[in-house]
Amino acid sequence: MLDSHMDAAVEWFVNSIKNTETYRRYRYQLEKIKEDPEVYEKVNEFRRRNYEIQNTAQVDELFEKMEAFEREYEKFRENPLVNDFLRAELAFCRLMQEVDIAIADELDFE
What we know:
YheA/YmcA-like_dom_sf, mainly alpha, Com_YlbF, single chain, 6 helices, about 0% strand, YlbF family regulator
């Protein structure tokens, strides 16, 4: 449970993230892709399979599995709606990773 000082700081921090161009672009692309439920469902399948491969494949077979996965979805990724969403999502994920690293670097947490 956060004390009032931390609660206010978290609220400010979340609002700061929401005000970034990266987050706004991600939200725009998310809403755009949701307008086509079939494409949105296929994107979610793509994301789910990508996650599973990256988190279950053995290191020595990961490259091969990812290459096959990318070939399988190559045509699908050519759809501008899909590509724009996945690029915006990746940019937002990278932003959040950078934030996480910056916080961890500033704290003495082992």
